[in-house]
Glutamine amidotransferase type-2 domain-containing protein
Amino acid sequence: MCGIAVIVCGVRIELSTLSSPLKPPFERLQFSVEDVKCVLSQRGPDSVGEKKNFLQPKLPTCAQESVSGEGTCNLENATTSGELHFIGSTLQLRGTSPIIQPLVDSSGNILAYNGEVFGGIELSSFDNDTEVLLESLEKANDLVPDVLSMIKGPWAIIYWQESSRTLWFGKDAFGRRSLLVHWPTVEDPRFLLSSASPASSVANGSGLDSGNGDSIHRFWEELPCGVYSISFGVSGSGICGEVTKHEWRNNMWKELIEWERSLVVPRPEDLSMSSIQEEKDNALSTFSGFAQTVLVVLKESVRRRTSLHNIFQGETEVVPVAVLFSGGLDSMILAALLDQCLDPKYEVDLLNVSFDGPNAPDRISAKAGIKELKKIAPLRRWKLVEIDADLPKLTIETKRVMSLINPADTYMDLNIGTALWLAARGDGWIHEESDNQEDSQRIRYKSDARILLVGAGADEQCAGYGRHRTKYRNGSWAALDQEMKLDMQRIWKRNLGRDDRCIADNGKEARFPFLDEDVIKTLLDIPLWEIADLEQPSGTGDKKILRQVNMLMTIFNSPRNFINQKCYLKVAKMLGLHEVAKMPKRAIQFGSRIARESNRKNFGSNRAANQASAGSVRFNAPCVYFGHMHGDMIISFQRAESEIGGNESALQALRELIIFPFLYPLEARTLGLKWSRGLLLYGPPGTGKTSLVRAVVQECNAHLIVLSPHSVHRVHAGESEKVLREAFAEASSVSDNKPSIIFIDEIDVLCPRWQESKMLVLLRSSLHSWTRTSLHHLHSPPRVVVVASTNRVDAIDPALRRAGRFDTLVEVSTPNEEDRFKILLLYTKKVNLDASVDLQAIATSCNGYVGADLEALCREATISASKRSVDSLILTLQDFKIAKSVVGPSITRGIAVEIPKVTWDDVGGLKDLKKKFQQAVEWPIKHSAAFTRMGISPMRGILLHGPPGCSKTTLAKAAANAAQASFFSLSCAELFSMYVGEGEALLRNTFQRARLAAPCIIFFDEADVVACKRGEEKPKWMVLKKLRCSTNATW
């Protein structure tokens, strides 16, 4: 295993032969050569080397055939030079003496190779395959694709051919070794190849983002499988090169890539024959033929990958090989075959990862599996390395894995990558063997094996995924075959590159016996109905051929080598391999329980994760750079959604205010458009107005100046105006490369209505003056914008709200259920949640809570948990219940509001009335989407009438409880007041707060007192008429 890279600078590279030109926006990342060397040294800890090659005059012109090396060139007009910087690191696995990459031969050829040669090129037991490959390439001249097409085994290569001045690069047809590529862009014209992404090149922004990430071209891409070349020459603008992709010269590769199975759809007699064979008495007759063939090629595949003469031992003898071990079918087969291929004196490490201690499914099956292996191979010392992990504590490790899986960026990739990275590190516990099993001790252990056998490829080739069963049910055999073909043709992009990078980062080499060329060819030649029988239940029909291989190995591996059925059944019963053969497919993220822990950490619960399709949600929205949008200015932004929850409309409005003038200056000039310079955010306290501004400022890389009443107000005349002038001068003096935002908090205090505060007339006039001046003098670029916030939009001078000043008004209202859930996710992402905590249910029950209330709720829950136990701070559902009894919705303080605890069961009888209530109140709230889709307008008012004591109030409370709606109760006594207008004000405020706490029910007790008949002449009824008019207007 090696790490390889090349950085090509000062060369214009033409990509037209590969695909259509890439269009912006592009991701732009910054890292140094040392960063590249650092990440490669993790893959190859034995040595790190580098070699620079300068492209000086000797180059052919671009129009000539440079691969052949023929022709002359004239570089008198060439004024620029290019540079190729090769970097290589080595994990020594073959040969008798260590080597340092990149290798340079006597002809000036440079080779950086990451791979193994298991066939195709002749090697002796003591040869190093990289050195032999360099000799073969030197002899090949322009036949480099022919040499690479002969190699059997995984490889990725970077090769400089001095004679033709050509850079060759590529990887094997299935992409079993990682090689990332950065194609040149306007923003970053370098051409880069690397085995892994440097850690410093990953964007720092994080958060749930499954939106527009696909429209951004990532800096790194997985290099598609194949052989490529860049032939360098000279054009009028300097040194140039054109990328060419070459065809495979070996027909075997073409067949395997096309992955066309000849026997897909069975005839009726084929299925009946298969069914008859399974019922035969002789066990060997069932497994003869196909299963035995697969067993032979699998064993040879394992032997190639574990032969000791292919493993560089160095001065000390260590455990040579480990197995990624879950106790499932694939890993059990690999472990059993490894026992047959490796000398019994060597120990074998079985690496098992768990995020749930001994309770993870993979840990349970691994313990059962090692018992079976000890019975099959009692002479071998098997070490089950129990690697226990706690996801919330893996902060540094998670960041490391994020960089390794790049360009993959979903939570599913992160979960799988984390599990593989921990397994490859091999730092865990083993049980020390003793005569008395009860006295066995669990001791610390770290695996030093440099080769890790992984079962990748088995599920793709043998229909082991759940989607294979779905395709079969929906489209039968042909659809199943097409899905398996698709999996094999994209395995390089979805799995192998990521897995290779995560495993190799610990100085281990991942080897995939199921992806051996002979194994792939053998499985492809077998009829599909012999590979899998998905009419059978899970654990029986999927990976049918491998289950038969497992049964067959039971017989061949048994000490007595039983043949007849009775003996076979005894062996199977003795070894317990019937259970192994019937185990269903279980992916590592589920078997290790990391997916469950990740869902709780990032989504609150498994249910919420499933609703959000967590597997496809991106954990990292890349940092995007828009180049040359305004001269040489570059605007970079990270998604603000990682800091706040909800309020999408306000976010978009702020982005448009700040970013659009920089994105579309030409369009604005053409249309004579003047951009808005002011935006007013209004809404109840605690809804996140200030947080919104700060998050978007950070996202847009803008300069922020905050003004508030206490910072502006001064005692002496003229000082307040001076503060305003200095703030605007500071905003105007910021570099042209970034916008400036002046944020005025509580602007209603600084600029009230004229009649409300005549003492602040001077200050208000000054504020108007500098606002008008700033908007008048800033035409291009529109770098300074003003954002203000207020809780009382009606208290602001209307002159400020006209067009040309604060002409954009955005309401930041109380969050709905979905927004509350997002806010809870943000506030609980750094704490441990118990399995009983369902954040979605908590969000549903928190009607009327704003962001500040939810923050206080989480804080109180944390305090409750710390009081209960300081050692293990895990928040339970009871902690949130206690917190909710302390923290209520701030917008309803001063008014009695609650979700009643009365249920329908507390109301005896009245079945018809309950049904009508459910239809009128509960259904419109719980099934609002269905009502909207069918165009049904829900009822807005319900009148309950009847004699006293017939449960009118209780029914209303039960309806509020069933709909989880806030309950406002008003009686006529509360509406009467000796002062004019107070009753109307109370009624108006109640309706305003009810809208903020929606969904809610307002209950008027004794409504006949307020809603009396018209025509009454008594004075008290005149008051009631006013209240009735106010009620009608408010409603």
